[in-house]
């Protein structure tokens, strides 16, 4: 949370001092002060008028993420048992510092990619108008903003398909391949320190659900990707506008960066898993209780040997939220107080049978709602259901394949839901803000992606 204030200020001169974090399932809902956010967006908008700034921020974001990955990988490879508390404190401090500027990568990208999409749209309109092809805008815009590079989650699926192909050749002798795969991709579900990473057995079970013709599946995926890349090249060659080409190539980089920035945090949690287990053991805690301590409390233990009481930890494990007002950070764990804080700090939710957002991949679809918090909810998703989520994530691939339409609380045109909606040609409405709170499993809804409206239907 410190990075939201000082980390952002160091990069763009704007503080986000007031915010609230609330656990929701295996993820978190994060709220910021509306006025501070408006100023944050305004400042980034001013800076992003220069395309060179956008290019520099992409480079900086990859550098910041790479540093986090390298530092946490080094810590993961450390033998902690022979290290003193003082040395563990040094390692923790190194980890903490690596995350300092990450907040701008996390939050700034949400603003930057939308501004970049606007630049692409504006430049495309001008280029088409100059060639009397204005009617091509929707077709070309949808193509140019469709992802053409693989995320780590997509690479994982392709590599697992390759392992299945190997299994078909040599029987069940794939133990080493599964172990290496788990070591490489076990971090994918880890949205926090207390999430269990995927192991060899998880991937062994996953293989069963994959295509029985893995090589054909891989070839089909590669063909679709190459077709998309080829079509973008054709459009850019046809319009022959160097600035448009520059913006589209940059947008493709940001589309991947939007996913990569969250992947890096998951990799960091995975790499730090053994470190925090060692801390947990030294503190006399168990059952992942260390995940409910703060970094200051861990520093205090490593410095002074002071351990937070188990009663406080148990209370936090049941319910908690982080509240930061004017630089003062507080952990609220009392249920009545949490309800009171949420009531006083957040805008009241107006329940309605109509939700409005931004439509992606035009179409209208009716179906039953399934609220999806994580891949653990796949069991309740059936063909044609309406997938409703705070946001979709790469590891939800098999769930998305069943969806008749997608509705999300968050997101812009380059968010994961928007990207996969265009790839799978699924009607999608993003950025409704409250879909997961207003709708419930089994509700019959109509998703109108052309109008950006989700309407609850009367039965």
From TrEMBL:
Residues 150-184 form a coiled coil. The keyword ATP-binding applies. GO terms for molecular function: ATP binding; pyruvate, water dikinase activity. Keywords: ATP-binding, Coiled coil, Nucleotide-binding. It comes from the Bacteria. SUPFAM superfamilies: Phosphohistidine domain. Residues 382-452 form the PEP-utilising enzyme mobile domain. Gene3D superfamilies: Phosphohistidine domain. Belongs to the PEP-utilizing enzyme family. This is PEP-utilising enzyme mobile domain-containing protein. It comes from Candidatus Nealsonbacteria bacterium CG_4_9_14_3_um_filter_37_29.
